[in-house]
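Please review this pair:
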Amino acid sequence: MKLIFKLLFTFSFMICSANENPKLQDYRKYILTLNQSKYYSTSIAANKYRELFNNERITIKDSAFVIFEIFYDNVQTKVNELHSIDETDYFTFISPDNNQKIPDLILNYKNNLIENGFDIAISEGGTWIKKDRNFISKNFYDFISPEMKEYCTFLNIVEKEETLDDGALTITPTRLAERIIWLENFNNSNPTFISINNVNEYYRRFLYFLLKGSDNTDILDMKDIINQNFSDAYDFITLENSKSKTSNYVLPFYQFLKNKQKTEADYLIEKYNREGIIER
C-alpha cells in the first residue's frame, strides 16, 4: 500500500465564518461548485485564486491557499477512485522497464494530469495518481508567504522522494531523520504558521517510522543487532543534532537497542505513542 500523507487542516478552514474576509468566503463557495472528480478542476481553482487574491495581503493569500490545498487533496482522492476502476493497462507502459511506445491515449492522459498537478505512479504492481507539486510552485509561489513557500518546497521534495511503498521505506533512515530535524526547526522558527498542525503531523509520522521501521524495513536483525542504516540515522540525530527535541526522544531508545534491551525499547515506543509523540 502506498503511503499518502494528506494535509490535515483544521476544520475551521472548511466552513465560512461571519468574520472571515468576504473574498475567502467567495472562494470557498466557488470551489464547492467545481467537480472534484475532474483533475482539471485544480487549474480552474488556481485561476480563480489568482483572480481573487492577486492584490490581497499575504495573510489572506495564505489562508486562501489553505482552502486550495484541501480541495487539491479531495480531487486527488476522487481521481484515484476513478483510476482504480479504470481497466486501461497503465502499468505496462508507465513501468521503467517498458520498451514499447506509449499509446497516445495514455500519454495524453499522463500529460494532462501533470498539467493539472498530478501524475501516474507505480506501486505494488499497479498504478495510482500522485500529486505533482510543481503545479504549486508554478501557480502559487508568487503569491504565498516565504514561510508557506518554504513548507511547500519541503512537501514537493517529500512527494517526489516518497516515504513508504509496499511496506518498505523508500528513503534511507538518515534521509528520514533529516526530514524530522527540518520539521522540528521549521516548527521552532514558525510557531504561528497557519499550517503548523500539518507540520506536527508529518513530524509525528516520520518519527514513528524512524523508531519503528516498517513491515518490510526492520531496525534489528535476527540477532537484535541494529541495522547500520538506522544506526547512522540515530547518530545523525543524537550527535549532530544533540540539542534537538528529537534527540531527547531518540537517545534513550537508541541506548536500549544498543544494550539489547528490546523490551524496554518497545515499552518506550508504546509510551511515545500514548503521549502523541509518534503516530502511524
